[in-house]
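Cross-posting from the chemistry board since nobody answered there.

I work mostly on the small-molecule side, so proteins are not my area. We synthesized pyridoxal-5'-phosphate and want a rough idea of how it might sit in this target. Sequence and SMILES are below. Is it possible to get a predicted 3D structure of the two together?
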Amino acid sequence: MIQDELKIESIPESAWQESRRSFMKRLAGGIAAGGALVAGYGTSTAASPPQDLDTAVSGTDPGDERYWHAVRNQFLLRDNLALMNAANLCPSPFPVMEAVFKYTRDLDYDASFQNRIKYRQIREDTREKMARLLGAHPDEIALVRNTSEANNAISSGYHLQTGDEVLLSDLNHPSNKSAWEVKSRRYGFKINYVSVPLIPGGEDEIIDAFERAYTPATKVMSFTHVSNTTGLSMPARQLCATARERGVFSLVDGAQSFGALKIDLADMGCDAYSGSAHKWFMGPKEVGVLYVRKDSQDAVWPSIVSAGWRDDVDSARKYEVLGQRDDAALTATGRGVDFHEKIGPDRVEARMRQVATAIKEGLTELPGVTLSTSMDPALSGGVVIFKPGDLDPRKVFAKLYDTYHVAGAGMGPNVRLSPHIYNTLDEADRAVAAVAEILRDGV
Ligand SMILES: Cc1ncc(COP(=O)(O)O)c(C=O)c1O
C-alpha cells in the first residue's frame, strides 16, 4: 500500500514543463484515454514560443509575453478560443487535470477502505497548502464544495433571531443574498442593504456607505469581494475592520477573488471567506474553500453533519463533514495550489490585471460602449462589464462566441468578459476588435 501511495503521489516535476501535445500523447497512450478528449484536441501548437514555466521573471511584473504563452500551453484550451469566462468556470492546467484522472483511476481501481485511507493525509496536505496560499492557519480552512455551500454554511450556521440584523451589499450573489432572505423569513431577523454606486468615486465612498448602515442590532455584515455583475472590487480590509470595531461578524464572498487576487486573510481581517476552486483558482470542479477565523468558529454551528462527525473537533474541519467526497478532486486541489505557487499569486494577479486592463482600455475607445467597471485597480479585479450600445447583450454574447470565438457571458443589460492568465494580449485585442465589428455590423 505504501508503494502504491508513493507511486500515485509522484507526479513528475516534468509535468510542469510538458506541452499539451506531450500530455495528450501520454493520455492517449493509456493514462485515462478519453477518446472524445483526444479527438477534441487542437493541432496548432507550433507557433507557441519555446519557453517553459521555469524561465520566467519573478515578483509582480507580469513579464514576457512568451512566458504567458507557456502558461497557456498548460491548458487544454481549444486553439482558436479566447475563453474569457473565469467568473463562471475556469479550465484546469494539466497537472490538476492529471491529478483528477490519476486519483479517479486509483479510486476506481481499488475502492477499499484500505486503499482510500491515504486520502485522509492527502486532504490534510491540501488543507495546509490552501492555508499557506490564503494566509491562514490550516485549522481555519474547510474544504467544501463551492462558494454557495460556504456562504450558506455561515448564513445557516450563525445563530440569529428576531431583533438581530444582517447587513448586506445589494451586489451580493444569490448564494449570499437570497440565502439570507430565506433564513430571515424562517428565523425572524432583519436584513438591511447597502446600495453601492456602480463606479464609486473611491474606496471611502463604499466604506462610508457601510458605516452609515450599521445599527446597534447588526450582528453580521457580508459583501462580495469582487462583484460578478459590475466588476467592482470592494475595500475588503477596511470593511472588515469596520465590522470588527463593532463586534460584527464579517463574511467576504471571495468567488471572484480567490485565485485571481493575492489573498492574505490574516491581513484582510474577515471572520469568514468563501471561494470556489473551479473559478479563478483553476482547480478541479466542485471543490470550494471556507475560511473561518479561529476565534470566530464558536459562533458558527456546522449545518451539515454526517458520518465521521466528532464532538471534539475544534477547527474548521467541523464544516466539512459532508458525507462521501470526491477524493480525487480534493487531491487535485493541492496540485492547484502548487500551480499558483509555481507562477506566484502576485504574478497571477498582475497578469490577470494586465489582460483585463487591455480589454477595458480597448472598450473605452469604442463609441457606444459603456464600461461599468472601474479602470482603478483598487476598485476592480478581473471582471469586465460593459453595455454594448443599444444592442441586445445576449445576442452580442452569442455572436462573440459563434463568429469570433470569444467566450464571455451575457449579464442582464451587459456583457461580461473575465480573462485570466491563460489569455494572451492578442486575445484581448481580438475581443475588443470583435466588439467593434459587432457594434458596426449589428447582431
Ligand atoms: C460572487 C459569487 N458568489 C458565489 C457564486 C457561486 O459560486 P458557485 O456556483 O461555485 O457556488 C458566484 C458564482 O458565479 C459568484 O459570482
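Reply from a structural biologist on the board:
Welcome over. Reading the output above for you: The pocket of pyridoxal-5'-phosphate is lined by residues 88, 146-148, 173, 175, 224, 228, 253, 255-256, 276 (CB under 6 Å). The first strand starts at residue 82 and ends at 83. Happy to explain the C-alpha cell format if needed.
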